[in-house]
């Protein structure tokens, strides 16, 4: 574990004075937004500390793939590991992970949920969503000013999030207004970035 990862994990867990950066939080979302990683995290939440063999047996994910996913999750501070003899046990290391998992994946995990999470794992999209949440709804003009991007870039980000049902639109004459359509995403954004 690198110093930066250890710092991220510690600050995310204890929520002390040093807050993880926007980039570190986006990396966490990006890492979680994978079906196998979600299954691993849900297993760790439900069953507590587990080794790779426990995860392989329970989830049916090949051992090498499971290890790669655990390394990715550890690199962003989502999980931690402890050695007991020859075995390494993994557990949830971040309260942010618990919040994300309980908000997004309370029931059955669907590919649509994973895609929604993937679609927000981008700094510009998070800034757009936070502005929309703050306003209740917004058209493109204030969003362009808020993120300082070209209209075409803002429109592309909004189109991507609309395709995953994170945002929805309504038209008022020629103006299109965007609003956050996914309650879970809104709660996650407020918790992580609010």
From TrEMBL:
Record has Metal-binding as a keyword: no
Pfam families named in the record: HTH_5
Superkingdom of source: Bacteria
Single GO MF annotation: DNA-binding transcription factor activity
Keywords: DNA-binding, Transcription, Transcription regulation
Limits of the HTH arsR-type domain: 18-112, 105-194
Keyword Transcription attached: yes
Entry-linked InterPro entries: ArsR-like_HTH, HTH_ArsR_DNA-bd_dom, Metal_resp_trans_reg, WH-like_DNA-bd_sf, WH_DNA-bd_sf
UniProt-listed PANTHER family: ARSENICAL RESISTANCE OPERON REPRESSOR ARSR-RELATED
Official protein name in the record: Transcriptional regulator arsR family
Source species of the chain: Bacillus cereus
């Amino acid at each position: 574990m690198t110093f930066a990862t250890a710092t991220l994990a510690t600050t995310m867990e204890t929520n002390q004075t040093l807050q993880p950066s926007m980039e570190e939080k986006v990396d966490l979302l990006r890492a979680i937004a994978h079906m196998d990683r979600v299954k691993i995290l849900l297993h760790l939440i439900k069953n507590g500390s587990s080794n790779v063999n426990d995860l392989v047996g329970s989830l049916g994910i090949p051992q090498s793939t499971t290890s790669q996913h655990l390394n990715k999750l550890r690199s962003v501070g989502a999980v931690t590991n402890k050695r007991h003899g020859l075995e390494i046990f993994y557990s949830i290391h971040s309260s942010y992970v618990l919040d994300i998992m309980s908000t997004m994946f309370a029931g059955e995990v669907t590919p649509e949920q994973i895609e929604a999470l993937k679609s927000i794992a981008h700094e510009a999209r998070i800034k757009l969503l936070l502005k929309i949440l703050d306003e209740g709804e917004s058209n493109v003009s204030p969003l362009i000013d808020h993120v300082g991007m070209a209209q075409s870039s803002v429109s592309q980000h909004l189109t991507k999030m609309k395709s995953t049902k994170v945002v929805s639109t309504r038209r008022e004459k020629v103006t299109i207004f965007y609003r956050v359509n996914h309650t879970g995403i809104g709660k996650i954004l407020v918790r992580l970035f609010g």
